[in-house]
Amino acid sequence: MNKLYDSPKAALDGLLRDGMTIMSGGFGLSGNPESLIPEIKAAGAKDLTIISNNAGADGFGLWHLLQSRQVRKMISSYVGENKLFEQQYLTGELELELNPQGTLAERIRAGGAGIPAFYTATGVGTVVADGKLQEEFEGQPYIRETWLRADLAIIKAWRADSEGNLQFRKTARNFNPVMATAAKTTVVEVEELVDVGEISPDCVHTPGIYVHRIVKCTINEKRVEKLTIRERE
């Protein structure tokens, strides 16, 4: 099966619909699927549930889908820097399911591994535990969290071969690998396309069996959300 597509628009063709759930990779602004997000906006699919660590920053990433009012609900762990996100949440336009970051990652991993639920001590005694089943193990309280799965995962990798074997680079290896396993369809944008065998088996972070469509990046800004520097002596 040919997994290579000529453009981000073509890579998403036939996959988008109103009311669907989309996982979007990235940690802050690192590893965001910069080329695929604008095509979702252009397609106009609405009432979307987005599972992502964050919702981008002003003028970048998932911010574009918030700006066009295509997102109904966000399942996230970090939302502090996005003013548009804050505004829509406080006015009731946007539904938010806020997760501790490790819990979010594990819920996605569980979805990919076929584990419907698991127990964690994170969030016990806080609003995170509200409405969730709680049990004791070895005398300690734990809350039950459920898996997360999606109709579509859009992720970004450093390198890929034509079979879909992926290699990520540094911080971009964040939520991207687990999201690739937890969706019915995974579309990946990559910086470099290489021949099969060029990525050492030890360096394959996501096997091609999880990848359905591949496209070369058309946008690769790699913005820095907060640049902090100091003068050299």
UniProtKB/TrEMBL annotation:
Signal peptide: none
InterPro entries in UniProt: 3-oxoacid_CoA-transf_A, CoA_trans_fam_I, NagB/RpiA_transferase-like
GO MF entries: transferase activity
Gene3D superfamilies with a match to the protein in the record: Glutaconate Coenzyme A-transferase
Entries under Pfam families matching the protein: CoA_trans
Keywords: Transferase
Domain of life: Bacteria
Name of the protein: CoA transferase subunit A
Taxonomic path: Bacteria, Pseudomonadati, Pseudomonadota, Alphaproteobacteria, Sphingomonadales
